[in-house]
Amino acid sequence: MKTIVIKPKKTFSWNDFKEVWQYRELAYFFAWRDIKVRYKQTFVGVAWAIFQPFMAMVVFSVFFGGLAKMPSDGIPYPIFVYSGLLFWQFFSTALTETSNSLVGNAGIITKVYFPRLILPISGIVTKFVDFGIASLILVGLMFYYNFVPNLIIILILPLLLLITFIAAVGGGLFLASVNVKYRDVRYILPYFIQMMLFVTPVIYPASIAGKYSWILAMNPMTGVIKASRAALFGNAPINWELLGISLIAVLILLVIGVVFFKKTERHFADIV
Question: What is the DSSP letter of 1?
Fold first, then answer.
């Protein structure tokens, strides 16, 4: 009698993406489940998507824009900081959601097989919805300050969201794998994200770093936020070189995240 032994793959291959595509309906189910849990029959879900960046904008505007007189490249400071917070909020919440996706779905992982890559990716869909809702505040702020946006933002926005999405997925896959074995990640990550906020030009212009601006350029979100402000306000030309560096950096991060995820995937059901 011939015995067939099924073993998990140790390395990443393009067949993994094909498998994810084959299970796309399951990915849709997970994403729709998260959206319903967050928004169905609740006001808090919608309000929270607006409340977080709005209150952060108010606090930063009072202390950094008002008291510290932080420069904002000739843009009204509330609009300046809120435009940065939009992308930062999307990245930080998506990264947190992705890193906790495996632990949060432990019951499903231990009972049935499906491509585990689906869980981190589908968990970010709700963050696109949050981004769209929170963007309404930016529109209101621009009307309030009589600021006419540059329409080029419509063309470049998909690229900026793609870079932010890849950054969150790449980092999230790595952290999700580590989080399965070491639950300290959920406690360390909020502190790490908080520190990362201050090395990202959200509350200050990247130009303020002067000769040390290359340090900020190592952060992929720097290129995204600078390009979004340049496209939205037209206060400076879009730095395509910096944006290209950000894209290359997040693609490298994605490869590292996926490879590490696939190498550790075989142990998820045993220790999650």
Answer: -
Q: Which two tokens stand for residue 105?
A: 């779905």
Cβ atoms 57, 85 nearer than 8 A: yes
Euclidean distance between CA atoms 233 and 75, whole angstroms: 8
Q: Distance between CA 53 and CA 203 in Å, rounded?
A: 12
**Residue partners of 128: CB distance under 8 A and separation at least 6:** 90, 161
Beta-carbon neighbour count of residue 243 at 10 Å? Answer: 22
Residue 124 is given by DSSP the state T
pLDDT at 228 over 60: yes
DSSP string across 200-257: TTTSS-GGGGGGGHHHHHTSHHHHHHHHHHHHHH-SS---HHHHHHHHHHHHHHHHHH
pLDDT band at 43 (very low <50, low <70, confident <90, very high): low
For residues 66 and 209, which has the higher predicted lDDT (pLDDT)?
66
Using DSSP, state whether 146 is helix, strand or coil.
coil
**How many Cα atoms sit within 13 Å of 173 on the Cβ side?**
26
**pLDDT value of position 225:** 92
Question: How far is it, in rounded angstroms, from Cα 241 to Cα 219?
Answer: 14
Residue written as tokens 């998507």? 49
| Mean of pLDDT values over 197-211 | 83
**Minimum mean pLDDT range among 42-51, 173-182, 237-246:** 42-51
Categorize the per-residue pLDDT at 168 as very low, low, confident or very high, splitting at 50, 70 and 90.
Answer: very high
* Residues of the chain above pLDDT 70, percent: 89
User: Do the Cβ atoms of 258 and 173 come closer than 8 Å?
Assistant: yes
**Run of H or E residues at 143:** helix 125-144
Q: Could you tell me the two tokens for 75?
A: 């843009």
The candidate with the shortest Cα–Cα distance to 246, out of 228, 227, 225, 219, is 219
